Amino acid sequence: MENFIVSARKYRPATFDMVVGQDSITNTLKSAIRNRLLAQAYLFCGPRGVGKTTCARIFAKTINCSNLGESGEACDKCESCISFNTLRSFNIHELDAASNNKVDDIRLLTDQVRIPPQVGRYSIYIIDEVHMLSSSAFNAFLKTLEEPPSHAIFILATTEKHKIIPTILSRCQIFDFNRIRIEDIVKRLEFVARNESVTAEEEALHVIAQKADGALRDALSIFDQMVSFSGKKITYADVIQNLNVLDYEYYFRSVDAALDGDITKILMIFNEVLDKGFDGHNFVAGLNSHLRDLLVSTDQVTLSLLEATPSVRQRYMKQASKSPVSFLISALESGSACDLAYKNSKNQRLHVELFLLKLCRMNGEGTLTAEKKKPDSEILNQPEPDQEVRSAREPVKEPVQSATQAVTKAEPPAASASRSSRSFSVRDVISEDPEAYRDNSGNTEHESVAGHGESTGEEFSNEKFMEAFRSFAEMVADDSPRVASMFKSITTEIISGSSVTLHLSNSAQRDLFVQNYRQKLVLYLENIFGTNTPEIDAKVDQSESDEIIYSDEQKYNYLVSKYPSIKEIRKAFNLDFE
Fold first, then answer.
1. Which positions ≥6 away from 298 have C-beta within 8 Å?
2. Which of 134, 425, 444, 477 could form a Cys-Cys staple with 484, CB 3.0–4.6 A?
3. How many CA atoms lie within 13 Å of 95's alpha carbon, on the beta-carbon side?
4. Which residue, 51, 78, 75, is CA-closest to 155?
């Protein structure tokens, strides 16, 4: 039985032309070799599985090739190339910095660098995961890297360039490796599948490439896994089942339901996803990616940004044609907010369901069933089941009649009962435009503003005013703690039967009262005192507002003026302002 070799090793590139997705880097390296413009140190950095170490080995082999081709590739026939391919080359040295990261390891390397090569022109030192070196090891390596022997070339590889000290970076030629595109990974997987006599669906390879996240090594490992699972035939269904990937069919169905405003359907789709064991967060992230792909599919110019097989691309274009751009943008904004807040939500399922409900509302009215909505005229003509329910649905602002019309025109008993049974808060009834709630005689239409029925026109007195003022303060106290605190601190000064001055603590309270509550208070009092309603004035105590206190010393002097004992306390405990 032959030993199995994983595809990542079996199909590891041996020449620059075989490297996938890094053409700009390989072309630069070949040109440097042809023109003999070799630097003393190189730094290959980038994510995992994109060819950093592979390119370092190919570069090291090609530098010492004695029969270099015109394209800059090694011949694989000379003694140097053969010794490299058979793993017996004495000119190429590899060091794993993850396990050899101490000062002593770098000192051994420094001593080794002094020895010239026995065969070939250069000694190449490949240091993988160089960011794992300790600070002292970096410092020990710095001098050698700055002034190496003419025969020594260093190739450093790392996935975390930001961890390397600047003095090292400044002495290297830096090559940034990119993530490999999905199309390039799919082509490489097709090549491997042909060589291994494996039949694979294009969509299946596309899912493998997406799962690899730009790393060809990961894609080849997943490919081997799928061959072990499916045998010589890899299907899309087997891939999504084995890799626990959510089928894109759910996303197409979800968007169709959202466009139709079908709340029931989209909630059942999400429930089906959860029943299959998928996480709600993954569903949201996948739906956001699907919405993004739909957005780029709405224009032929941006269609190139869509990474999908031709058959799936057609489905995206078809669904994008019936998806308004405004809907897609709003859906992406809402989906991004849902994604960010998912982990902090205590009811994560409800959090996602609310997002799905918003999607249904973005392109039309959502329905709780798949049935078509009834015409508005049919809904309006339906009999009311309960008079109390009807009165609760009536708008707060009703058409206003004059006082004379209200007396002469009798209302049906049921309507009168309904009106008298309703109750509203001051915030619900009183608007910023008081004229909208007054009739021709100057009275407010809604009896519930005063809470005492029709305007009584009572005689004004100090006791009745204070009682009315306290009642109003209790009703508006629910607006906010700031409003409740303001009304508690107000002191009243009744100048005469026609004027009342309210003293507030500061100008901020005065502005709040004048802008939001003075007119409401006047309307409230008019329903009690009628024409006897006094004028309401708001003032700030001058002693409190003459000087604005900024510094600690000003605050201290102000407190001492009110509480002289503070001065003695300061002396007794030797206190300072800070």
1. 320, 321, 323, 325, 328
2. 477
3. 23
4. 51
CA dihedral 488, 494, 500, 502 (to 10 degrees): -30
Strand order in the sheet with 499-504: 491-496, 499-504, 535-540
Q: Could you tell me the two tokens for 88?
A: 């017996």
Tracing tokens 């002469």 back to the chain, one arrives at: 408
What sections of 156-309 are H helices per DSSP? 166-169, 182-195, 202-212, 216-230, 236-242, 248-260, 263-275, 280-296
Give Cα separations from 106 to 136, 156, 447 (angstroms).
10, 13, 90
Q: Distance (Å, rounded) from C-alpha 536 to C-alpha 520?
A: 11
pLDDT score recorded for residue 577: 63
The total domain count for the chain is: 4
The number of residues in the chain equals 578
**Is residue 388 domain-resident?**
no
Which residue range is the domain that position 281 belongs to?
248-362
Distance CA 91, CA 124 (A): 6
Pair 133, 21 in one domain:
yes
290: CATH: 1.20.272.10
- Among the candidates 362, 382, 415, a domain finishes at 362
Q: Are residues 271 and 231 in the same domain?
A: no
Query: DSSP label at 99?
Result: T
Query: For the chain, how long is the longest CA-to-CA vector?
Result: 120
Last residue of a domain, one of 207, 225, 242: 242
Tell whether the torsion through CA atoms of 560, 564, 569 and 570 is positive or negative.
Answer: positive
Whether 168 and 252 share a structural domain = no
Q: What is the CATH number of the domain that holds 190?
A: 1.10.8.60
Q: Could you report the average pLDDT of every consecutive run of 10 residues in the chain (578 residues)? A: 79 89 90 89 91 91 85 84 84 86 87 83 90 88 86 92 90 92 91 91 90 90 90 89 87 92 93 91 93 91 85 89 91 92 90 93 56 43 43 40 37 38 37 41 39 54 84 83 82 78 81 83 82 81 52 75 80 74
Distance CA 485, CA 512 (A): 12
Radius of gyration, CA atoms only, the chain: 40
